[in-house]
């Protein structure tokens, strides 16, 4: 069980901040379409509407929101991957702080469950956390990642879309959504998501290669 936990933890870590191979989830395409219907209008990514920002502001104090805005401004202007990675880390630290000691404790329990190889327990805790803190994007992101690793594509997609409704600049959720869309042959939507990611985090690891791969594979397709 411990080894499983190490593998699960390592897999989650490996997924973050990079682009895994595509087409892992193609067999689930029909299930996805039945379960959730069309992914979304346009590029499959919820528009960065003010309501999402407003929801984020309900859990992030104004001064903290200002810090995040500053970090994102620096991230969009980062000159290289090293600078971007440092800023991504700072942003993720702030995302992981819910503003509630109870919610932070629950989040820490999910990490222990994952390390212990108990994904079911981690999912149960994250379910509870999303109920207690419905605007806490990090809970949806972590639950979406666990759903994705267990092949629960429709649930993962729903979680990543929720993350982006709360925090439209969530670069990790955008990456995961783009990978899912590409696996589902939604190439144009995947490309649109990646281009939006490019605006937020142009130095994101593997981003340019992912865009080039979709564009290169678009020959003969209407994209």
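^ structure tokens above, recovered residues below v
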């Amino acid at each position: 069980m411990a080894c499983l936990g190490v593998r699960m933890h390592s897999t989650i870590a490996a997924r973050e901040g990079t682009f895994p191979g595509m087409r892992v989830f193609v067999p689930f395409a029909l299930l996805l379409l039945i379960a959730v219907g069309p992914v979304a209008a346009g590029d499959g990514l919820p528009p960065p509407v003010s309501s999402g920002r407003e929801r984020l502001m309900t859990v992030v104090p104004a001064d903290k929101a200002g810090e995040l805005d500053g970090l994102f401004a620096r991230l969009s202007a980062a000159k290289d991957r090293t600078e971007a990675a440092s800023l991504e880390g700072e942003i993720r630290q702030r995302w992981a702080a819910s503003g509630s000691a109870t919610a932070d404790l629950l989040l820490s329990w999910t990490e222990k469950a994952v390390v212990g190889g108990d994904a079911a327990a981690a999912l149960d805790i994250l379910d509870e956390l999303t109920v207690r803190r419905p605007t806490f994007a990090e809970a949806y992101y972590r639950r979406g990642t666990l759903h994705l690793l267990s092949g629960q594509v429709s649930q993962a997609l729903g979680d990543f879309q929720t993350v982006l409704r709360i925090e439209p600049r969530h670069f990790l959720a955008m990456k995961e959504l783009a990978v899912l869309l590409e696996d589902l042959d939604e190439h144009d939507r995947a490309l649109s998501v990646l281009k939006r990611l490019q605006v937020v985090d142009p130095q994101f690891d593997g981003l340019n290669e992912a865009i080039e791969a979709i564009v290169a594979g678009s020959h003969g397709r209407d994209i």
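The two ends are 45 Å apart (CA to CA).
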